[in-house]
Specification:
The protein has helices spanning about 5-10, 15-25, 55-65, 70-80; strands spanning about 40-45, 50-55. The chain is mainly alpha-helical. It has a single domain, classed as His-Me finger endonucleases (His-Me finger endonuclease fold, 3-Layer(aba) Sandwich), CATH 3.40.1800. A two-stranded antiparallel sheet has the order 1-2. Strand 1 and strand 2 (about 50-55) form a beta hairpin. The longest helix is centred in the last third of the chain and has 13 residues, at about 70-80. About 10% of the residues are buried.
């Protein structure tokens, strides 16, 4: 991830990003898959801009398309489990 973009968009230094990545053991906070080839994306609250963690592209898009709505995500998980 571009260091300048990290700081401008999230007020996150490259060292901060690395600490989060190390705490997550290089794994996506959503799907728990290790991503060694690509950088994980910064997940943040769009209202407060608070950084929540690092996600792979698929998990980041899923949260975005669901508008961070946990009720919708639980409903979809329940739907899939019932099939």
């Amino acid at each position: 991830m571009n260091t300048r973009r990290l700081m401008k968009a999230y007020r996150l230094s490259a060292e901060d990003y690395q600490k989060i990545l190390d705490n997550q053991k290089g794994r996506c906070a959503g799907c728990d898959v290790h991503h060694s080839e690509r950088k994980l994306l910064v997940d943040h609250d769009h209202k407060t801009m608070r950084v929540r963690g690092l996600l792979c592209n698929d998990c980041n898009l899923t949260l975005g398309w669901s508008h961070d709505n946990p009720t919708l995500l639980r409903r979809l998980a329940s739907y899939l489990s019932s099939l």
